[in-house]
Amino acid sequence: MAFRSRSTLQSWLDEFALLGYEFGGDARVLQQDGAEGADTGLVVVELADAATVITIQPETRNAVRWMVTVEAREAAVTVTAPALLNLAAALSVVAALCAFLQAKSLAYAGVDVA
Q1: Cα(99)–Cα(16) distance, rounded to whole angstroms?
Q2: Chain segment 14-72, per-residue pLDDT in tens
Q3: Which of 15, 29, 62, 86 has CB 3.0 to 4.6 Å from 41, enough for a Cys bridge?
Q4: What b-and-e string marks burial along 27-45, b requiring 16 or more CB atoms within 10 Å of the CB?
């Protein structure tokens, strides 16, 4: 089962932070009520250079693959070339975090109490 409890996701997010990736934003786990009141988590990333909310979670409850969702914005964003390069670097960290969470979930052998 790919979904994980909030505490498990937080421990993985803490572990990822120790790897030294920097993107000038904020990543955290929010509570997400799962089926039958399960305490599941949702990883949320906010970028410093773009006011956009990004979420990372399994594709479906039993999915192996994790997905990144970039929320819609009310207005278009216009940036300079250096700002775009900074945004691309931040998005590459988000991609690395998604891959990390997927790998951790695949390697997780125990039963996660949510």
Answers
A1: 11
A2: 999 999 998 888 999 998 766 655 667 899 999 887 778 899 998 887 777 899 999 98
A3: 29
A4: bebeebeeeeeeebbebbb
Extract the tokens encoding 51: 């006011």
- Degrees, nearest 5: CA angle 77-78-80: 135
Q: Which tokens in the block code for residue 3?
A: 């979904």
Q: Specify the DSSP class assigned to residue 36.
A: G
Q: How far does Cα 51 stand from its chain's mean position?
A: 16
Cα three-residue angle 84-22-90, rounded to 5 degrees: 25
Give the C-alpha distances (Å, rounded to integers) separating 106 from 40, 68, 70.
17, 17, 23
pTM: 0.86
Residues paired with 41 in a beta bridge: 31
CA–CA separation, 69 vs 62, rounded Å?
Answer: 18
DSSP string for 95-107 = HHHHHHHHHHHHH
